[in-house]
Amino acid sequence: MRRDPAWHDEVARLVRIGQIIVAGMAAGPTLFLAIVLLLGSLANRVGDDGQPLLTWLALGFAAVMVVLRFVVPGIVVSRRRAAIARGVFQPGQGAQSPSPQFHQFLDRTGDAGLLWLVFLTKTILAGATLEGAALFLLVAYLIEGDLLSLVVAIVLIFGIVAMMPSRPGVLQWIEDQLRHVEQERQLIR
Question: What is the reported pTM?
Answer without folding.
Answer: 0.85
